[in-house]
Amino acid sequence: MQASHRITHILGGGSDGWGVFSKARRMIADGIPVTELTIGEHDIRTAAPILQDMHRAAIEGHTGYAAVPGTASLRDRVAARVTRRTGVPTARENVMITPGGQAGLYATHVACCDVGDTALFIDPYYATYPGTIRGAGAEPLAVAARPEDGFQPRAADIAAVADGATSLLINSPNNPTGVVYTRETLEGIARVCTDHDLWLISDEVYDTQVWAGEHISPRALPGMAERTLVIGSMSKSHAMTGSRCGWVVGPADMIEHLTNLATHTTYGVPGFIQDAAVFALDQGAAFEAEIGEPFRRRRAMAQEILAGQNAVTLVPSDGAMYLMLDVRSTGLSGEDFADALLDAHRIAVMPGESFGKAAAGHLRVAMTVDDTRFAEALRTLCDFAREKAQLA
User: Fold this and answer.
1) What keywords are annotated for this sequence in UniProt (predicted)?
2) Considering the entire predicted model, what is its pTM?
3) CATH architecture label of 65-283
4) CA 353, 357, 361, 364 torsion-angle sign
5) What is d(CA 276, CA 266) in angstroms, rounded to the nearest whole number?
6) Pick from 215, 245, 223, 261: which is nearest to 77 by CA?
7) Domain boundaries of the chain, sorted by first residue
8) At 199, which helix (H) or strand (E)?
């Protein structure tokens, strides 16, 4: 017996890009201390009041099947939040609740693409993007954003491969680069989508983590609401990564189709988790800012540390919980640098190559340990890069 081609080719025949991370975890399992700056996991846990409300909802009996598109109360809260943050009128029928943002990414590609369709995405990318597209039966095609452009994708580069494609996936604020797409970038993307009749899937799970500039949802641009599906999540904004509660926002008819898909796949999200998400959203923007504050603070620390040396260059990281560092001066690939750094100093970072070809020679650093350890690790990384650059 054989597994399906679709499932055996999710990785496209290559690496999943997590070799350094896996090596670091093996070291930790063997009792070797490692400073992990790898994954986007807060160094705080979900706030106790949210968990207490989740417990209350479960004890009071909201443990049976919940409505598949989501509870009315949570869909209404998400709709109100999106309306307030983007200015686009959004109602309950424009929202479906999903088991985290990743489930939303998969569902939207199933909804937009037939088997064999071409689905575009921007490189550098979050590591699951191409596999998600393959899992949905489509063919992923990366469009490189260039380091010399600050990883802002060029509309002309997207347009050059857009003929015959069905969808385009973008992510701003961006994981892995920390780049926030400018209005000019997003307007160019919108023109390409309109000219080539593409669905735009906009991953906006970091929309509350913007340290410079502004987050613009492309759904708010003229003519884009009817062709844009937005992915949101409680994971990053409320430190609820393990609760698996996200959403898709889009045209009402597409939400109906997505609800049919969820009925035959995930069958919704537990009601007590949705109730806790309502409670969390009701804490307002001040609570979201509190969750994001450690990353704002560490970004400022990093800018100061990196300004004092010239071996490592910081990509303009204006959002999210990551820094993208250019270490090409060392003559090493991002993968070789990260592997050597782990061996020499027990500091684990993600190679840029884990997120596509465009970020080769770069590192993604997650700002997810306490301030003192973070500053110490970053200084050590810079010293290590300087040593390697002198040898290059």
Assistant:
1) Aminotransferase, Pyridoxal phosphate, Transferase
2) 0.96
3) 3-Layer(aba) Sandwich (3.40)
4) negative
5) 19
6) 245
7) 5-45+286-384, 65-283
8) strand 199-203
The average pLDDT across 212-241 equals 97
What is the mean pLDDT of the segment spanning 188-210?
Answer: 98
362-366, strands of its sheet edge to edge:
35-37, 347-351, 362-366, 322-326, 313-314
What's the whole-number mean pLDDT along residues 326-353?
97
5-45+286-384: CATH, from 1.10.1740.10, 3.90.1150.10, 3.40.109.10, 3.90.226.10: 3.90.1150.10
Residue 248's nearest CA partner among 257, 239, 236 is 257
Count of Cβ atoms closer than 10 Å to residue 296 Cβ: 17
Taking only Cα atoms into account, the Rg of the chain, rounded to an integer number of angstroms, comes to 21
Residues contacting residue 346 through CB under 8 Å, at least 6 positions apart: 27, 32, 33, 34, 35
- CB distance 368 to 43 below 8 Å: yes
Q: How far apart are CA 392 and CA 390, in angstroms?
A: 6
| Residue keyed to tokens 């593409």 | 198
Which residues are CB-contacts of 238 (< 8 A; sequence separation ≥ 6)? 46, 47, 50, 277, 280, 281, 287, 288, 291
Please count the residues of the chain.
392
**Three-class SS of residue 17?**
coil
246-249 and 313-314: which strand pairing?
unpaired
How confident is the model over 59-72, as pLDDT tens digits? 999 999 999 999 99
- CB neighbour burial string for 86-108, b if at least 16 within 10 angstroms, e if fewer: bebebebebbbbbbbbbbbbbbb
